[in-house]
From TrEMBL:
Source species: Cyclobacterium plantarum
Domain N-acetyltransferase: 5-143
Domain of life: Bacteria
Protein name stated in the entry: GNAT family N-acetyltransferase
SUPFAM superfamilies with a match to the protein in the record: Acyl-CoA N-acyltransferases (Nat)
Amino acid sequence: MDSEIFLRTMQQEDLPAVMDLKTAEGWNQTQTDWELFLTHHPDLCLVARLEEKTVGTVSAFAFENKLAWIGMMLVHRQFRRKGISKRLMREVIHKLNFCQTIKLDATPAGQAVYEKLGFKKEYSLFRWIRKTGGALTNSDLSPSVYKLDSSGFNEILPFDAAVFGADREVVLRHIWASFPGGAYLFREQGIVKGFLLSRKGSNYLQLGPLIAENEAVARALLQQAMIQWGGRELVLDMAANRPAMNVWLEQEGFKTQRELIRMYLHTNSSVGMPEKYYLIAGPELG
């Protein structure tokens, strides 16, 4: 059966088919998100073709040639258990041999598959969802939270690179440009202590990434997002080892949906500062 599977790089004309695949799974990505990968790393976006159909995808984004993120691993349900995901993963890993570290966020079902390819667990995350409710009546910004503008954006870049473990300006600019109204900056005495970006997906508003010096800053940023966007369904992905934040999110109406397992291949040389990384950008972007 493997000989019938054809892998090739993704093309612009593949976007309708890959959007159909992600929609069937209820994923949140938009066509603009796919175009981010195609624009910056076209050689790292792959599709699997079987029986003249696009039946699988995988993408990757490389940061400074030292850290790469694999995402959008998706195979049509009708064509699973045929070795397609394994073929796609092996091919994209081969293409990423210039990176010191390769990471991904796996489902529990996928964890065993990735372990066989050499990936190791770094830590667990949980997806939290807050269903649509009435927008909160208080729409005033807290004293230290500001709308993120172009000058503030330049200020967050060194902070983010230190916490994330690599320079990801291209990704941050993509997220910010796609929804500037959902971007906030926490500044105190002229010093940036945190920021929050948001993404308008096809199904819900994804909050993240959120980088903060401490939990009080993280809460202030999240509270502002909830004040302004409480009328939308909100989703966020946060590391599991934050018990106080877990309690607070539950009080604010969030419920856990599923676990994700952050994994790495080769050496974990781009650890960054996970204690300050409160919300990830999403499983496909890290």
